[in-house]
Amino acid sequence: xxxxxxxxxxxxxxxxxxxxxxxxxxxxxxxxxxxxxxxxxxxxxxxxxxxxxxxxxxxxxxxxxxxxxxxxxxxxxxxxxxxxxxxxxxxxxxxxxxxxxxxxxxxxxxxxxxxxxxxxxxxxxxxxxxxxxxxxxxxxxxxxxxxxxxxxxxxxxxxxxxxxxxxxxxxxxxxxxxxxxxxxxxxxxxxxxxxxxxxxxxxxxxxxxxxxxxxxxxxxxxxxxxxxxxxxxxxxxxxxxxxxxxxxxxxxxxxxxxxxxxxxxxxxxxxxxxxxxxxxxxxxxxxxxxxxxxxxxxxxxxxxxxxxxxxxxxxxxxxxxxxxxxxxxxxxxx
Length: 334
Prior knowledge:
Layout: E1 2-4, H1 22-25, H2 29-39, E2 43-45, H3 48-70, H4 101-118, E3 122-133, E4 139-151, E5 157-161, E6 166-167, H5 176-182, E7 198-208, E8 211-220, E9 229-237, E10 243-252, E11 255-256, E12 267-274, E13 278-291, E14 296-310
Antiparallel strand pairs: 1-2, 3-4, 3-14, 4-5, 4-6, 7-8, 8-9, 9-10, 10-11, 10-12, 12-13, 13-14
């Protein structure tokens, strides 16, 4: 290798990368160094064969780093069953809805009353899964229970366990009744009979499972100790003015309501369109932590409702009116 101010072109070459666009030159420290040498008219003189070997080595070494970073090892995390996005209240809506807010509220509140009255007429299967997670984010213990909604001869609906609950939980201890308590969250928080207890504020719009929705914030006006109220967000279908999702908690003046042994309070609940005219909850999830003396254990509950089918109509037992026996004594004539 020889450094000189000028050599005949037939036996030397100058690195052409110095002559490229300035934006490209500034991308690599090596190119910047060559660019500074070029300003002082310093040329790196190499035989032709050696030059191309050095140039090839230059491009291979500079390209290896970015490719290695882009193609890192490890599988991609699978998508969740539902997209979970937390929405908080904002002081002012981004833009007014296409319909007056009062008209939207009146429409979906009336439908909530219809869905609440219709849901007991449908059978379903319910599954409850509660999980503990380790430091690596993987489940370390799990509780599972499955129930079917059935109706007795007198028309009352109750839930029948398919099998005994199964549990591999290591830290969280609770009774099956506590898990069942979580499924009794009122599915329709804002009905005509409850409207006077809430303030509703329009926030914005968002898609939920490809449905364009209005977003409303729901806040209790006054809290007491005996009547839990909903505090959270609801998503309303823009076209049909029906609630398709809720996210929030039930609260009293003492705070969020939950079983003594389970800390779950904030629930995200999705709904399913049933028979083309009703919206019933079909998926609920809540994430929290179970606090130990030396650490916190992440926990999650997932509740699913499926196989919605209307119960057969209740047939009232036939009643027969018995006439007087044929040998009954006749009343005496006056």
